[in-house]
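Priority: medium. Attachment 1 of 2:
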């Protein structure tokens, strides 16, 4: 099992992200739809599937790390120590690049706060 390092921001375009204290429900609803279309074949809320469960992700990863794995999964899996450890833990099944826009990734990140 991978360690918890909330200081790791990952590798990618997002270097700083602070969530508002209140969840943006409209944005989260958009993220729910995108997550349902692009992520649920490998990720569930509370069940280990091909990839890790998403509930409580921000207790294990920084918001920047989550955004960067969404936007830059291939480089993250190769170069980020936490992503590389997850790759090994999940039988070297690569997370596919879903070619998300920054806005789509941010919506998914907001949705994940609601889990």
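Attachment 2 of 2:
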């Amino acid at each position: 099992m991978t360690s918890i390092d909330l200081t790791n921001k990952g590798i990618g375009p997002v270097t700083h992200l602070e969530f508002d204290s209140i969840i943006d429900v409209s944005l989260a609803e958009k993220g729910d739809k995108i997550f349902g279309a692009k992520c649920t074949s490998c990720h569930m809320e509370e069940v280990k599937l091909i990839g890790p469960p998403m509930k409580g992700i921000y207790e294990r990863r920084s918001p920047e790390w989550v955004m960067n794995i969404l936007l830059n999964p291939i480089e993250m899996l190769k170069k980020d120590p936490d992503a590389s450890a997850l790759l090994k833990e999940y039988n070297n099944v690569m997370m596919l690049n879903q070619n998300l826009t920054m806005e789509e990734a941010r919506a998914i990140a907001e949705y994940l706060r609601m889990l």
